[in-house]
Amino acid sequence: MRAMILAAGLGARMRPLTLTTPKPLLRVGGKALIEYHIERLVAAGFDEIIINHAWLGVQIEAYLGDGARYGAHICYSVEGEPLETGGGIFRVLDWLSPHGGPFVVVNGDVFTDYPLSRLPRALNGEAHLVLVDNPEHNPAGDFALAQGRIEAQGMERYTFSGVSVQSAALYAGCTAGAFALAPLLRDAIARGRVTGEYHDGCWVDVGTVERLQQLDRDLREKHPDGN
């Protein structure tokens, strides 16, 4: 089962830090943000990883290399212009799902302690989403969860963590180019084709300089030795 880390964003909200450093290489707790994803994917058994990039992407390749030092096999999808979440995944769909099986997708700009080994290896539908409590910047949440199924509406709503298992069937009818993932998920949810689970542990959308700095402080306080 293969995995993709989405790392092609421009990081506009993180400027001036991202004027010279791509967001996935910004450091928190003594290491680059993207390294946490790679290490946790490998620990969970997902060691074949593809990373898409655009802005300053050559730095990402130079830093991570082929992934050998992480115990991973890393390859890259170079996007001249960002293709958004859906377009970036669709571009490498044949690599992610060469035999039609499911694959893991992780947003590169989040931090979480969700145990990736818990992700399902088979899907009962077209996608499986990990949901978390709503942060201050998304108080209304994204989706509801009822008996293991994702619903568009509900009494209690949660935020999509950016961690998912997906099927190539989710992209049926799509064509090459830039497009978002969210409309595909909403359509599949409306058809009852998306399962989910709730994670009550650590999760941070590292979308601003302030959140990055707070996460760095939290990690250094928790692991003062850098391990």
Task: Quickly describe the structure.
Helices cover 24% and strands 26% of the residues. The chain has 227 residues and is an alpha/beta fold.
Features:
24% helix, Spore Coat Polysaccharide Biosynthesis Protein SpsA, Chain A, nucleotidyltransferase activity, 227 residues, 26% strand, alpha/beta, two-stranded antiparallel sheet, 6 helices
Write the SSE topology:
Blueprint: E1 3-6, E2 27-28, E3 31-32, H1 33-43, E4 48-53, H2 57-64, E5 73-78, H3 84-91, H4 93-96, E6 103-107, E7 110-112, E8 127-132, E9 143-146, E10 149-151, E11 157-166, H5 182-190, E12 194-198, E13 203-205, H6 209-222
Parallel strand pairs: 1-4, 1-6, 4-5, 8-12
Antiparallel strand pairs: 2-3, 6-11, 7-13, 8-11, 9-10, 9-11
Number of strands: 13
Q: What portion of residues belong to β-strands?
A: 25-35%
Can you tell me the CATH architecture? Alpha-Beta Complex
Low-pLDDT runs: none
- Given helix and strand content, the structural type is alpha/beta
- N-C termini distance: 28 Å
Tell me roughly what share of residues is in helical segments: 10-25%
Q: How many domains is the backbone divided into?
A: 1
What is the top-level CATH class?
Answer: Alpha Beta
CATH homologous superfamily (4th level) name: Spore Coat Polysaccharide Biosynthesis Protein SpsA, Chain A
Q: What is CATH's topology name? A: Spore Coat Polysaccharide Biosynthesis Protein SpsA, Chain A
DSSP summary: helix tally? 6
N-to-C SSE string, H for helix and E for strand? EEEHEHEHHEEEEEEHEEH
Principal-axes shape call: globular
Rg (C-alpha, Å): 17 Å
Largest sheet at a glance?
Answer: 9 strands, mixed
Q: What is the average per-residue confidence, as pLDDT, rounded to a whole number?
A: 92
InterPro entries: GlmU-like, MurU, NTP_transferase_dom, Nucleotide-diphossugar_trans
Protein name: Mannose-1-phosphate guanylyltransferase
Organism: Marinobacterium aestuarii
GO molecular function: nucleotidyltransferase activity
